[in-house]
Amino acid sequence: xxxxxxxxxxxxxxxxxxxxxxxxxxxxxxxxxxxxxxxxxxxxxxxxxxxxxxxxxxxxxxxxxxxxxxxxxxxxxxxxxxxxxxxxxxxxxxxxxxxxxxxxxxxxxxxxxxxxxxxxxxxxxxxxxxxxxxxxxxxxxxxxxxxxxxxxxxxxxxxxxxxxxxxxxxxxxxxxxxxxxxxxxxxxxxxxxxxxxxxxxxxxxxxxxxxxxxxxxxxxxxxxxxxxxxxxxxxxxxxxxxxxxxxxxxxxxxxxxxxxxxxxxxxxxxxxxxxxxxxxxxxxxxxxxxxxxxxxxxxxxxxxxxxxxxxxxxxxxxxxxxxxxxxxxxxxxxxxxxxxxxxxxxxxxxxxxxxxxxxxxxxxxxx
Length: 367
Ligand SMILES: Cc1cc2nc3c(=O)[nH]c(=O)nc-3n(C[C@H](O)[C@H](O)[C@H](O)COP(=O)(O)OP(=O)(O)OC[C@H]3O[C@@H](n4cnc5c(N)ncnc54)[C@H](O)[C@@H]3O)c2cc1C
Ligand code: FES
Fold this sequence. Notes:
The protein is an alpha/beta fold. The protein has three domains: 35-127, Ubiquitin-like (UB roll) (Roll); 130-229, Translation factors (Elongation Factor Tu (Ef-tu), domain 3), CATH 2.40.30; 241-365, Rossmann fold, CATH 3.40.50. Helix content is 26%, strand content 29%. It has a six-stranded antiparallel sheet with strand order 9-8-11-6-7-10. Helix 5 (250-262) links the parallel strand 12 and strand 13. The structure holds flavin-adenine dinucleotide (FAD) and FE2/S2 (inorganic) cluster.
C-alpha cells in the first residue's frame, strides 16, 4: 500500500515537473509575442522590445532602472510601477504586496509582468535619471565596531546626479557559496561631490551583502551599483525639522545636513541620534561643530544602554522620551527618520502625539 502511494506521488511530481518545463520551453521558443511597445508616462518615452521578458528586465535592458532587491523573485516589492494598459491580471505572487489603493491605481510588481502585448506604464520622473555605475572602492573606513564608511570613485558614468537623502542599489559579488545580491544603501556623500559616492553600512550578522562588503570586498576592487532612487529628501519649506536616526540610518541625514551647510539652507533643526552605548556614536565632533555652522541646529545623541557609572553626561533615554524635553510643541515641525522599523514606528507615534502631522513625516525604513 505504502509503496503504491510513493509510486503515485513520484509519478505526479515528475508529471508536474515535466509540464512546468514544457510550459517554460513553450514560452521561450513556441510563443512568439513579436515586438511590443512600452509606452512610458503617456508618450514621454516609447520603447519597442521583443515580447516575452519581464517588464523589469525589458526596462533595464533599455537603461531604465527600477529599484529591485530580490532579483525579480517577487519578494522585495521594490519594483512597483503603475501599469495602465496591457499588464494582464494581478498574479498571486503580487497580490500580498499590493494595498487596496495600489490595486485601484494599477500599481504592479514589474518583475512579475510578462511583456506580451503593448503596455502603458507610469514611473516617477526621477527614475529616468537612474543609471548603472561602475566604481572603484577607494576607502573602507571603520566608523564604529560595526559600522563602516565605503568610499567609491565613479568610473563609468564618471558623475552621479542625486538629491541628498536618496539611495543606490549595490550589487554584491559571489563569495564562499553565497549568491550575488542587490541591496539598498543611502548615499552619505554630498550631491556636489559628483565623482564620488559614499555609503555608511552596518554589519548585519550573517547578512549576505554586508558580510561581503566587510570581509571580502577589497580597496581598489571594481563594483557595480544602480541609482539614484527614492524620494527621501529635504522638503522645500520654511518649516523647522526634526531629524531622527539610529546606526547606519545616519547616512542620508549626514548628506542632508552637510548639503544644508553647503547651500546655506536656513532651517531650524534638531537631530536625535539613537545608540546603545558611547561606542555606537560616530561623526560626533563634526555634528557638534555643525551646531555652530548651521543656521539653528542642535545635535542630541541618546544612549539607552550606556553604563550608569560612565562619564557620559548626555541623554540616557530613548528618543521618544527625550524629544518632548527639547520640543514641547512640534505642530509646526516636519520630521525625517531613518533606520530600523522599530525606531521609526516608535518615534512616528510619539511625533504624532507631539503634534507633527502624518503627511509631514518622511522616512526610509532599512528593514
Ligand atoms: C531604502 C533603503 C536604504 C537603506 N540604506 C542603508 C544604509 O545606508 N546602510 C545600511 O547599513 N543599510 C541600509 N539599508 C539596509 C540594507 O539594504 C540591507 O537590508 C542590509 O545591509 C542587510 O543586507 P544583507 O544582505 O547583509 O543581509 P540579508 O542577507 O538581507 O539579511 C540577513 C538577515 O538579517 C535580517 N536583516 C536584514 N536587514 C537587517 C538590518 N538592517 N538589521 C538587522 N537585521 C536585518 C534579515 O531579516 C535576515 O534575517 C537600507 C534599506 C533600504 C530599504
Ligand atoms: S524585484 Fe523584488 S519584487 Fe520585483
